[in-house]
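User: I'm preparing a small set of examples for a lab meeting where we compare how different chains pack in three dimensions. I only have the primary sequence for this one, and I'd like the structure in token form so I can line it up with the others. Please keep the answer compact; I'll paste it straight into my notes.
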Amino acid sequence: MKSIKEMLLGKRRNPLDPHIFHQISLIALLAWIGLGADGLSSSAYGPEEAFLALGQYTHLALYLAVATAATVFIISASYSQLIELFPTGGGGYLVATKLLGPFPGLVTGSALVVDYVLTIAISISSGVDAIFSFLPPALAIYKLYVKAFMVIVLVILNLRGVKESVVILTPIFITFVVTHIFLIFYSIFGHLGELPLMLGDTVRETHQAIQTQGFFAMLFILLRAYSLGGGTYTGIEAVSNGMQILREPRVHTAKKTMLYMATSLAFTAGGILVGYLLIRVRPQEGMTLNAVLINMISQNWNWFGIPIGTLFFYITLISEGLLLFVAAQSGFLAGPRVLANMAQDSWVPHRFSHLSDQLVTKNGIWLMGMAAVAVILGSHGSVHVLVVLYSINVFLTFTSAQLGMCVHWWKVKDEVDHWKRKLTINGVGMVLTFGILIATITIKFMEGGWVTLAITTSLIGVCLWIRAHYTQMGKYLKRLDKTLMSIPLPPAASSSPLKDAKAPTAVLLVSGYNGLGIHSLLAIIKAFGKHYKNIVFISVGVIDTSKFKGVREVENLTENTVSNLKKYVDLASRLGYYSEYHYTIGVDVMDEIEKICRETVAEYPNSIIYAGKLIFKEENFINRLLHNQAALTIQSRLLYSGIQVVVLPIRAL
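Assistant: Understood. Below is the structure token output for the 653-residue chain.
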């Protein structure tokens, strides 16, 4: 009978299966859906915010449409170069870390994490608001609870696996694309005769406005609208952050995905702005501008008495609302990957780089989901509040990534071809994104943008504290390694002790060949002398995000695990004990340790399992969060099965 976990999340995946990387990776089309929905869904609110910011000068929307489409392609081209330079992924965080330094990398990574949490929160909130607009008003009291519930649903979908979550949401994405392509084509090509008049009016009204208001005043209005529509560009960086989930060859798949994203976003956002202008859309109470546009072009559609215009109106708006749920996927796909990269650099707890049975970064998914729920509850699910918090951090990331690339091209200008062209692409991208960043901070700071900056700054402070803690512990462990790994070893015995499976046996859990493992072994020998005749070393090679990039990386992990275990066996043999090693490779440390311990105890019935654990002077939640609790967990799991596990205390500092 299936367990609840298996019913919700599906069967475990075998990371050692040579075909598993192909099975769970995304082709460009699915990657466009999973990672590109964030940017495409922004056409539900980005163009509207920009258009409304123009006020009475709506004729500037034509320039705005061109600028929006051009910006999308410029940023996408810049990130395509980033993908080529960093094919293993990491996005803006890795670029800033490698090219600008650890602290710029930390700032960029923290900004990305906060932005992806807000992506989930605003996408879910907007989507639920859109759906509830078709429901009886009496149900509105449940809206906040539904928003929190939908986040949990997406958490479960993503815990099942990346590909599964994307495939389930694919029909929504396709419906949105088809309906909006038709909407834009009908808006433009259905009014081709008005295009020359619109172009003439735009030139004439622009000239008049400049004469009456001044060139710089009109430029300010245009730039303000351009910056307020900055939410349109969010999500473009998601591909570079999610490279690990793309089908090989990853660079080719990523660049194709970027092309799909850029083309669809530029067409949709620019086309909607032109549609507003051609159809002469004006705000109406209780309706978005997109809803007004759809209604104005479809309200008179009838086919044999059937109001197909009304049907199109509802299908288009519902798909728009549901796409916002799909857009939350970019937060769940790319956010945990950023956390995993930061964990490998010790900015966040190391466990955020661990994979689950479904080969997803489960801790990152849970953190992103729970943080999004907290943001939704804290803002009461108000899109008006969330939209103010949104988009600032993504342009901070854009700018730092582009700056890093510019620094790189300048440093290697004598080593690469066409460096000027590459520098120009990233340079233009940096100027654009930096300009939007400054304008967005200036305009939105007092409206609540300071909250985003405060949250990001707080996260940076927490990360600095975590890094300092790991650095201090690393220095101590290095001293322990230096002391214990340099002890003189007795000469190898002429004959090795014989195995006696029924004799007293010490089973020692180790992780790498290091001072902690040697300390534990010597502690056993000091306490029990020659009581134990056999010593068995057990180790689990943990497949985390840094190693789950192909079959060869897993093979390297296996070779490294075996190599370290052989060193322990050699040490125990020199000390006069029969010794051997057992190992396994997996993603769930506790499950793998429990399984191999049971097998070892069955082979050596008179054995006791030992596990070393760092003991701090003051044990607290932070220490438990930042350091492995495997010893206590495995002791708890095996105790009620009659298997003795002794925790060996090791003074931390």
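A couple of notes for your slides: The chain has 24 helices and five strands. The CA atoms of residues 299 and 310 lie 6 Å apart.

User: Perfect, thanks.
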